[in-house]
Each structure stands twice: as structure tokens, then as C-alpha cells.
Amino acid sequence: MLTGGAALIKYLIFIFNLVFVITGIVILTIGAVILGQYGTYEALLDGNYFSTPGLLIAIGVIIFIVAFFGCCGSIRENYCMVLTFATLMIAIFILELAGGIAGYMLSSNAEKVLRESMVRMLPEYNVATGPWNKHDWDTLQSSFQCCGVDGPDDWAKHGVFNGTKLYPDSCCQFYPSELTKCNFEGPSSNATGIYTKGCLVNLEQFVSDNAITIGGTGIGIAVVQLFGVVLSCALAKNIKQGYETV
After folding, report:
1. 61, 90 contact by CB (below 8 A)
2. What is the pLDDT along the chain (246 residues), one digit of tens a residue?
3. What is this structure's pTM?
């Protein structure tokens, strides 16, 4: 039976595990939400934008398992379980740190990844079976109130529309109910009622903000859990010393 400071550490670990489980719920929730949001733009993003929030979800699930060793080991004063808990905590710390760093890297690469994908997908607007087609473009443009990649003239520049109408209906500020208020002919400087801002800026901000959330969550919670690593190592040391003095 531990006494004094060692006993205090034991109960601090038990309390920490409650916080630990809460952080697991937070990580799992944030990972799931961002993964769902990125899913809407799957055709425009590479696999890294899905593996990183997926890593957060996996860490959240692992935390629930690891917390078992921490609670049981501290209450039962079991050296092996506490040592296992400390080792797993260190592994989780490294994973969270890696996920956090990856989140910030994804944020810095978002503009390049999205630009390449969006320019490549512009000609797919009228392809019904394309990975990013009319429905996707219309949803994006009406949701973010934008037109094209850098601006409405992208549609004409990439030869998506021929004839007098140069822009999709979703470029209209009154889409889909009052399209007659928009003029879809001629360059954007002459067109009226259409969005003049490109979609890249808004979408890049959306993707980048979510990536920064991943980064901040991973690194922030990793720092908090470092406290648990210190406590569990201290408890394991005290338990071992108790065995040696018996």
C-alpha cells in the first residue's frame, strides 16, 4: 500500500484518466467531423487530408483502451499495468505530435493541392460520370458564393462553355430561382449578377482552417498528456521501490 506522496500520485493518475478519456472523446469527435467535411471535397484533395483526421479517430479509440490500464494499474498498484500505461501514453504522445505537425503541413499545402485539382476538374463540369462534375461545382459555387477557380473567366479560358453563355448557372448570385437577373454573356467585366470571386480562396481557407484545427488539437492534447506520462512513470517507480523494500 502506497503512502504519502506516492499515494497522492496514484489518485492524481486516476483523476488524470478521467481527463484522458475526455481528451479521447474530443480527438475522436474532431477527427470524425473534419473527415466528414473533407469527404464532400474528396475528388479535390489527396489521401493525406483523410489519413490525418483518420489518425485522430484511431487515437481517440486507443485512448479508451489505454485508460483501462491507467485506472486499474493505479488503483491496484500493479507495476506492470502502470508501466504499460506509461509506455502506451508515450506512444500516443508521439502519434498526436505527428498528427499535429501533419495538420499544419496540410494547411500550408492546401492552396497548391486544390488549385491543381480544381483546374483539372473544370472540364469535367459537363461529364455526368466525372469524379467532380456539374452537381459538385454547382454546390461549391452556390455554397461559397464564388465562380471558377480564380474567377469567372476561368470557365471561358478553359473552354468549358462554347457560344454566348460562358458561365454555369450556379455563378449567378440569384441561383437557382431567378437566373434571368444574371447576364452570362461576354467577359466577367461585362457580365452582370454573377459572382466575381473565385472559389479557390474560400475553399482553401475552409480546408486550411480544418487542417490547423487538427494540428492544434494534436499538439495541444499531446502537451496535456505529457503530464500523464510523468505521473505514471513516477508511480511505477514508487511501486517498484515498494516491492523492493518488502
Report:
1. no
2. 444 455 666 677 777 777 888 888 899 999 999 999 998 888 899 888 999 999 999 988 888 888 776 666 666 666 677 777 778 888 888 998 999 999 999 999 999 999 999 998 888 887 767 778 888 899 999 999 999 999 888 888 877 776 677 888 898 898 888 888 888 776 766 778 889 899 999 999 999 999 999 999 989 888 888 877 777 777 667 666 654 444
3. 0.80
Residue type, 237: K
DSSP classification of residue 128? T
DSSP string, 218-235: HHHHHHHHHHHHHHHHHH
Question: Angle 4-39/199-245 helices, nearest 10 degrees?
Answer: 160
Strand partners, 185: 165
Q: DSSP code of 181?
A: G
Rounded to whole angstroms, what are the CA distances from 232 to 4, 74, 191, 219? 16, 8, 67, 20
The whole-angstrom distance between residue 232's C-alpha and the CA centroid of its chain comes to: 30
Q: Which string of DSSP letters, residue by residue, matches 44-105?
A: GS-THHHHHHHHHHHHHHHHHHHHHHHHHHHHHT-HHHHHHHHHHHHHHHHHHHHHHHHHHH
Domains present along the chain, CATH in parentheses: 4-110+211-245 (no CATH), 122-199 (1.10.1450)
Burial (0-12, 13-18, 19+ Cβ within 10 Å), 203: buried
